[in-house]
Model the fold of this input.
Amino acid sequence: MNQENEANRNPFVNGALKLYVLLAYLFVFAPILASFVFSFNSDRFPSIPLGDFSTEWYRAVAADPLVWEGLRNTLLVGVVVGVISTALGFGAAYTDYRYHFMGKQVYLALALLPPTIPVVIMGLAMLAFLSRVNLSGDALAVIIAHVVICAPFAMAVIRLRLSQMDPSLEPAAWNLGASEWAAMRHVVIPFCRPAILGALFVTMAVSFDEFAIAWFVSGLNETLPVKVLGFLQGQVSPRINAIGTFVFVTTMTLLILAQLLLGRPDATEKE
Amino acid sequence: MTQDPTQDPLVTFDGVAKRFGSYTAVQKMDLQIHQGEFLAIMGSSGCGKTTTLRMLAGLEAPSEGVIRLSGKPINDLPSWSRDTPMVWQSLALFPFLSVIENVEFALKMRGMGRAERRARAEQWLDRMGIAEFADRNISQLSGGQRQRVALARSLVVEPQILLLDEPLSALDAALKVRMQSVLKTLQRETGITFVYVTHSQSEAFSMADRVVIMSRGKIEQIGTPQEIYRAPRTSFVADFLGSSNIFPGQLTRDGQGQPIIATPSGDFALPAGNTLGIAGQSASLTVLDTRMQIHLQPPGDARNSVAARMIGEEFVGATATIYFETEDGREIRVQKAHEDLADLSLAIGKPFHLSWSPADGHLVSE
Done:
């Protein structure tokens, strides 16, 4: 918003709009905020007025070996999925940038398709397929399933960055004596670095959060979100708030990191 | 010109053609580029000039023919194995590298050690007068400074030949003129062969030793700027340069058997010794707009003349360009100094007679 607009605006309308935005955000974030507040509340059931400040639910969660196992699975899966999906996404995006071939539209549609498939169907299909090849119930199964839904996100992020690259940049590197591999290493990847890191964080966050497919294929190697459902089915405990807060903070941190990398002034600049 | 006619050319195009699917970008082309010359390739967009340059740089493979560099065929040599650095229209500087890292790039790719390549890059930054910006980001530089970085980045490998693809097109007029003299001086001092692609006549004619004019994938004319300006070989060239009036017609002979050209605007005597071909052939007579005279009465001597009505005028600095239209609807331009126009009392719509000496005419093929 520039100065001129600011000066011409009715201060009342301006204030009302700001209030409206604030309320909209409050509505969206209220449940998460409530979960955050109650995770530090000593009462057994969420009620107002609040009881004492307490970290006992966090301590209870931390004392549960099953939670640690879930966290370990989630982190392991998240990191591996992030790296593999970003590598695949980069390859797909670069192919789109560099080459023209028959059926490219089909190639693109297929590459971007997985996130549009309802997760329940995807999870069921994955379970059917992976159990057939004896991978179901393995952490590897969760990794494979998550790579399928994460790679398109990585591709989209990196493709956007490549579209900002001067088409002469890579030929200029060849012209200066760089082989195709050297140009990839010294020009294309450095140019895409913010997007590659961004894609890494986004895909990790998606995997970290993903519940439905993991529920189908994880078997005994449950990830944290699957574990949360287990708690819910057994009992109502503020421990869920504690885990929920932890998952939310982790995911948001990854997404904010990605946003900072992708929104940096030099990331959008086109030379 | 520094070229020695006994020397073998640095680059030869031998029947080189380039097709993209059914579209022919460059038709069978023969071209020699001499050691140490400044060659400009000029034409409007889509004429094949950039494709020609890209084939030389190894960015496009010829569909036909052989390109030789210092006598060796280079058709199958990938771009990174040729020493044909190019300055790009967009400059294509690496935005994630500092100025000096950009200049070092080619040396790094050739495996030169860190200390040595830094020293070489610093030399070139110094030579281009941008040593103080070595550690800056590309985005912190002005247009002219970026231009110098791009030149340093290409010249740091000290090549035999430098290719330039409309490098000045993004600059404002004043900076353009300054960079032209930088380029010309640089070429003279280094003795490196420059091949400069442009659509701008003023750039080509002010810098180049020889100019190649292309149209629709074909070379229309090769020559020094003076040769091309005085004696365009085809009516396309004359029209493209825009400094001549063109009368298309048929070659024939008058009552006394003298060769003339019959045009819709009248019959005109031809310059001696410039009878292009046989009678009956189509040709065009071109006359430079500075060589025409304006009269109130028909000149009545041995001069060629045509009646025309004034339709407009344009003043640029000390000269004026007056536009006329002949009875058959042909537009004619005449350039004159202001003092030559004083007693003509010019007015739009007023009839005049335009004349030129037959020796100032120049015959071109269609």
Chain B has a mean pLDDT of 89. The longest strand of chain B covers residues 304-316.
